[in-house]
Amino acid sequence: GAVVSQHPSWVICKSGTSVKIECRSLDFQATTMFWYRQFPKQSLMLMATSNEGSKATYEQGVEKDKFLINHASLTLSTLTVTSAHPEDSSFYICSASRTSVYEQFFGPGTRLTVL
Amino acid sequence: GNSVTQMEGPVTLSEEAFLTINCTYTATGYPSLFWYVQYPGEGLQLLLKATKADDKGSNKGFEATYRKETTSFHLEKGSVQVSDSAVYFCALTVGAGNNRKLIWGLGTSLAVNP
User: Is B43's CB within 8 Å of A46's CB?
Assistant: First the structure.
């Protein structure tokens, strides 16, 4: 149990377009979802924390108007990268929690490449 | 500030060799410590954890002991298998309530050869 999926697993887009990434908890209800970004050979960087039905809490330095997070239900959160630029190219990982922050279940990640 | 430092990889071992991946941390207060593992093509998953000093976390033959005096949480396994090939992340939690978050190390890639 406790499976988290992400879609798409990879995406290539043109500069200036917007890209939406979905994160779903398949067999449990997630009260909290997390979005991370991972650069090559670097650790995971928490971008934002979202609770179902409320606005996401963004980490310092993360532009909330550029990285739109919606957590509309207990099983789905979306991250939209708006007006993407090549520097947004990265590996984006979501996780979901139903109890505490360290009981997070991770999705397999989405590789975004902006041309 | 709060941070996690783990040994750089990649680490390459032969099957049945002894594994140690070093992890040290800097944190205010009393963090909980974790090891996560990411197998090829899969999401991160919790391997083991320890929530207070001198606790030992263990799972799948892996062990790590929370050493407050040396601020360390080294991962060990007595006899690795090919199936242990993965990337291992050391992490800690700080904060309380809704401010609680995971702080990650860079990850250490392990390759086990038959």
Answer: no
